[in-house]
Predict the 3D structure of the following.
Amino acid sequence: QESATTTTTTTNNDNNGNGSSNHKHLTIACHEAMLTWSTHSGKYTISVDGEEVFSNIAKGSVLEHKWKWSHYKGCIADDGDEEDVVPMRIIACRKPPIRTSKDFRCYEFLIGGKVFR
């Protein structure tokens, strides 16, 4: 069971009625994403802030799951969402390869294509 805490920064614009914005509000929120994976059965769940958002069965010894996060809504993005959406990706393996460095990690959490540690 692994977890990662991310900090989400969202900028909201207030319109003054004529279509132009003159105020910006910065909202910072921390979120926790947790992977729970039974490497025996392959069943896994991904929870964000304690709420299960995905569950499935991974086939083989490698698990990969991708989704999109909406900063504006603070939740999983719908297919139609485009604004403030960041791609998320979890890659995990049951055990490290035979020939690997001592720094090899059996899991990676990528936010917007960058490894989060």
